[in-house]
Design a protein that fits this description.
single chain, 343 residues
Length: 343
């Protein structure tokens, strides 16, 4: 297992972490992801730890806290061998204060996550989204207090715009508060918007990326090909709801090249897609999910080998899209904005 430093922190993390949104289930949305119970989850955690994947990602809203509960049970007796990240901000309780990044909500959300996980500390705590109604200083002071108390090790942001993240980093610097060291965001061969603003920001400010949905919300599993719509899996059962929109022609063009590269390397389509991400700037970790042992072991096959420069170039070309303004304009100023700062 390869380990990378997480942003501008001293924490080393494996390049793959295991996402547990498939744990528990229990409602219409998350049932499409999976309903892994404690017994199967324990087996998956066993395999992860054996492979060096000692980082587990969850959130308080995954199956209404059920994911945290199942993960906590699966890690019982070996918490010291694992890193855990979880998230808050989205609604997790009734009433006007049961949502957001206020001090009121975050303190209670953190305490509830600790209880469900059966632990006394969370290694990395993400704000799951940006709360525009709470002052940034209030959020960061609450998080800083949780860090000082030892309940949180590091903090991160997820799904923020570039200016949201930069404002938070500037506020942390101004007041000497805990600083976001990681960004958890969507990035895949069929979703490269992260490169336009957040990647240059991460390079400049030392914020490491944890990638969510690296297979394009299930579209790069190898089941969907030109002229062969997927007849099984989450996408076929309506699981694309709530995920990023992907142009069909872009998807098929990317999969055509993935198929060719997979044949050349002797790997699978998803293994090639994951390996491509591991070579991108700022990427510290990729969150992979699996409903069962076979899927998990297949994901582990993305490690231990590298794409050639030619294969990377072909995948880049197939997946490239014209960015929106002002990014397309900035890309023309390569005399002062060379790659990778103008991705």
């Amino acid at each position: 297992m390869q380990y990378r430093q997480l942003g501008r922190s001293g924490l080393k993390v494996p390049v793959l972490s295991f996402g547990t949104a498939t744990f528990a289930g229990g409602n219409e949305f998350f049932d499409k992801w999976g309903g892994t119970g404690i017994e199967e989850a324990t087996r998956l955690v066993d395999i992860c730890l054996e492979a060096g994947v000692n980082f587990f990602d969850t959130a308080d809203v995954y199956s209404a806290g059920g994911s945290e509960q199942v993960l906590g049970a699966a890690l019982k007796g070996r918490r010291d061998k694992a890193l855990i990240s979880t998230k808050a901000t989205f609604r997790s309780a009734e009433g006007p204060n049961g949502v957001g990044s206020s001090r009121f909500h975050l303190i209670r959300a953190c305490e509830a996550s600790l209880k469900r996980l059966g632990t006394d500390h969370i290694d990395l705590y993400f704000m799951h989204g940006f709360d525009a109604t709470t002052p940034v200083e209030e959020t960061l002071r609450a998080l800083d207090d949780l860090v000082t108390s030892g309940k949180i090790g590091y903090i991160g942001a997820s799904n923020f715009s570039g200016w949201h993240l930069m404002k938070a980093l500037a506020t942390s610097e101004k007041y000497g508060l805990a600083r976001y060291v990681a960004y958890q965001g969507y990035y895949s061969l069929v979703g490269r918007d992260y490169e336009w603003e957040l990647m240059p920001l991460g390079l400049d400010q030392g914020v490491g990326l944890m990638v969510w949905s690296p297979l394009g919300w299930g579209r790069l599993t190898g089941k969907i090909r030109r002229g062969q719509p997927d007849q099984s899996g989450r996408i076929a059962s309506g699981g694309a709801a709530g995920g990023p929109q992907v142009d069909e022609e872009l998807l098929y063009t990317v999969v055509d090249v993935l198929d060719a590269v997979a044949q050349e390397t002797g790997k699978t389509v998803p293994q090639v897609a994951l390996n491509w991400l591991l070579g991108r700037p700022t990427v510290a970790n990729i969150v992979v999910g699996a409903r069962n042992e076979a899927q998990l072991r297949a994901n582990l096959g993305a490690l231990g080998w590298s794409l050639t420069a030619d294969q990377v170039a072909r995948l880049d070309a197939a997946s490239r899209r014209q960015p929106v303004y002002p990014y397309w304009h900035q890309m023309d100023f390569d005399e002062r904005n060379p790659k990778p700062t103008r991705w």
